[in-house]
Amino acid sequence: MAKNKIVIIGGGASGLVAAIVAARNGAKVTILERKDRIGKKILATGNGRCNLTNMHCSSKYFHGGDKDFITNILEQFDVNKTLEFFSELGIYPINVDSGKVYPNSLQASSVLDVLRLEVDRLKINIECNAEVTKIERSNNFVVYTKDKKYYGNKIIIAAGGKSSPDLGSNGSGFTLAKSLGHTIKKPIPSLVQLKSGADFLKQIKGVKINALAKIIDENNEIMRKEYGEILFTDYGISGPPILQISRIASDYLNDNKRVSVDIDFFHDLSEKELDQILLKRLTSMPNKTIQENFIGFINKRLINIIIKEAGIAMNKKSADIKKEERNKLVSILKKFSLIITGTNQWNQSQVTAGGIITSEIDEVTLESKKVKDVYLAGEVIDVDGDCGGYNLQWAWSSGVVAGMNASN
Ligand SMILES: Cc1cc2nc3c(=O)[nH]c(=O)nc-3n(C[C@H](O)[C@H](O)[C@H](O)COP(=O)(O)OP(=O)(O)OC[C@H]3O[C@@H](n4cnc5c(N)ncnc54)[C@H](O)[C@@H]3O)c2cc1C
């Protein structure tokens, strides 16, 4: 039987593993990569440490496409198979926290290096500075870059989403898929910082606190809550819990719906318990101003903002704080609300929500239902995961499934 000749568009996480399994399965593989080198985004993952998967991976941590579709792909190349794959390439995986897996080197470059070495060993042809602009089908596929044509009998589109275009993915995968007849669900930034117009932000820029962030819809329903380190910036809020809830905000803003974030500075105390603690502080330090009283209770730079928000004079003595004022303070400390006006842009977002809709892709093989012999992998598909190794797991799983089926 003649060898399959596969052209892979995109040398990122999904494209590289697709190329490896396809070449191991006997195919002749070419990767076309628009940047000057492959795998640039991998180097930036996990703050340069590469959180390559998560031991708790399941479809519940993913959004966008159909859940059964996602499960089907994840189960074909699950976390154990992923760890085996990378271990065989030389990565010694360690489970750092909450199921997050990293290479023991804590260097994302080692993940890219082992993939690159395997790509070289398998004699996979890599063409960099080769941005694909058009795909045509005659007998075989003709894949066009600015100055060259490439031929193959199978294509894998693994061009990523629109997030962090400096690292390569500029949304051109969506344009290519659309030109083949695919429907693209509007891409929106996910795992991204949130903007707010609150005027006090400039004053507390740089403040980091451990707190519970709740994302609230226009009916005051809590849509998701996440605990962790929140960073106030001059434009809004950032930090792991904010990135985690950002997808919902992005979605709501895209639909022109109101969305806000409530921060609970004392998530492990009920309002009643917090009130008791506050009462004790006020009575045990009666001569201190409320401003002085709050020193050591909350971050110093937040004190004035919270007292002002409660409508209390800074120099009011603790002994003179009335019950209603105490209630107001408790309520602000438990529910510090920020109206969200936007998200940061593509260059700041880690992941793209939206993309090629899953109903147009075979849920077992990842072959396009629009054009035979075209396969899709990675973030170009309308599947995005939470923060924590899920997005790379999707890239590995979908890359392997696409690579295997394209080469069969
Ligand atoms: C800063 C940052 C940190 C992250 N950290 C983590 C983490 O720790 N854990 C985790 O699970 N996920 C993380 N992610 C998300 C994860 O990196 C992505 O979900 C994953 O890389 C997607 O893989 P992909 O192959 O679909 O796309 P990409 O990795 O984006 O690769 C797509 C490739 O296609 C190329 N390309 C695009 N268009 C064309 C074209 N027309 N022609 C030729 N080539 C093209 C691009 O240059 C790129 O190299 C992070 C993302 C960012 C930005």
UniProtKB/TrEMBL annotation:
Its cofactor is FAD. Residues 5-404 form the RsdA/BaiN/AoA(So)-like Rossmann fold-like domain. InterPro entries: BaiN-like, BaiN-like_dom_sf, FAD/NAD-bd_sf, RsdA/BaiN/AoA(So)-like_dom, RsdA/BaiN/AoA(So)_Rossmann. Keywords: FAD, Flavoprotein. Residues 189-351 form the RsdA/BaiN/AoA(So)-like insert domain. This is NAD(P)/FAD-dependent oxidoreductase.
